[in-house]
Amino acid sequence: MLTKRIVACLDVDGGRVVKGVSFRDLRDAGDPVELACRHSDSGADEIVLLDISATRRGRDTALEVVRRAGRELFIPFTAGGGIGSLQQAAAVIEAGADKVAVNSAALADLALIAAIAARFGSQAVVVAVDAKRRGDGDGWDVWSAGGTQPTGRDALEWVKEAEERGAGEILLTSMDCDGRKAGFDCELTARVADAVRTPVIASGGAGAAEHFGRVFREGHADAALAASIFHYGIESLEYLKRFLKSQGIPVRLPC
Amino acid sequence: MIAVVDYGAGNVTSVQRALERLGHDCVVTGDSAVVESAERVIVPGVGHFGATTALVVSGLSEVIGRRIAERTPVLGICLGMQWLFEASDEDLGLTGLGAFPGRCRAFPADVKSPQVGWDQLRITAPSRLLRGLPSGTYAYFTHGYYAPLVGETVARCDHGAPHTAVVERGNLFGTQFHPENSGEAGLAMLENFCSC
Description:
The complex is a heterodimer of chains A (255) and B (196). Chain A has 255 residues and is α/β, with parallel strands linked by helices. Helices cover 37% and strands 23% of the residues of chain A. Chain A has helices at residues 32-42, 56-72, 86-94, 104-108, 112-120, 155-165, 186-195, 209-217, 228-231, 237-246, and strands at residues 5-13, 16-17, 46-51, 77-80, 99-102, 125-133, 140-144, 149-154, 169-174, 200-203, 223-226. Chain A has an eight-stranded parallel β-barrel, surrounded by seven helices. The longest helix of chain A has 17 residues, at 56-72. With 196 residues, chain B is α/β, with parallel strands linked by helices. Chain B has a single domain (2-194), classed as Rossmann fold (3-Layer(aba) Sandwich). In chain B, α1 links the parallel β1 (2-5) and β2 (26-29). Chain A binds chain B through residues 1-5, 40, 45, 70-71, 74-76, 93-96, 98, 117, 120-124, 168-169, 197-199, 222-223, 252, 255, and chain B through 9-11, 13-14, 17-18, 20-21, 46-48, 112-120, 138, 140-144, 158-159, 178, 180-184, 186-187.
């Protein structure tokens, strides 16, 4: 049976991991490649390296991180953050990433998803969607530019369009739940997962093992992503997977 | 030396990195002469079955077919495996190499597609590619079409419909999943291929 995936996300700024680290005996706790390998060894099913560098120099460093990760990681990994063109997507894929995550650029240039899919296949295109519940409580809007700008687009409409344009997966972040560690937005995730045939990765709000169980059961997610939860060691990946297995959720265990 | 055939169908870097990690010389190439002289050949590929038309146009298809007939070890990965079958519903205007019988089909409408993620291999026959690996080993898949079960199927999966995960006859191998993305187990399979 196809297992539910646990995705470990690392935010990288200027080639360094931004959030803290809990692994013992790590030579360089800020090195994204070493940390990614540790996550892989601990049972992460997939890695996302998200470049949050604001500068050109930082982005060049990020490409070098992708290149090193490509040599060290033998599970799928996605590179994202600030990818604005087919050329930039090609650069990270050719550096060794298996997939690219596109967000704001896919909204600004509606042909971008199809262009990357045509060159590298749909499986290489992860469309990241930042969704926030509308003020009137009815539905969710898509926000761009790192969740700073409302686009006026309906999240369900956008994911369907992204799928038609060639998205291979949807990485769905709930802006309402992100950072609160109170659980994923199961309602949003279920609505999106039921609206598309492509797999949906739930993101935003992970704080405990039970949150993952709920987003798989109630949110119909195919995968769930967390960043800081793993860095701070609130749950180990192995513990998380054992917990999910005990709940009857299919996971890759032992890895 | 291992030739990793580059015919424009997606990313070949991961395959190259995995072989390098294992300490094997490899070259990513679209040059028929290089494929002609390599000790082993890997046909990777992701994306649309239509991409395999480049193998035919470039003459690589003929060379790979000849190498298979000469019993050179050849491994098709993902789309590269599907191309070893006769055809695919994804593009009925093309034919595959026909080294294995049958046609690849789309997943039924009631399951998520593409299938993305880790699934367990159900090993159904002795396999040199899977030597040392138990049934139940996890592998990483990403595909919207699947190859049928055939007499040469040595491992299967059952997502949506029963389908071939590993196919093997003599020195010809195919994996629907990506060994280069399947962790230690995947590296072990590539090592098995490199030492057969």
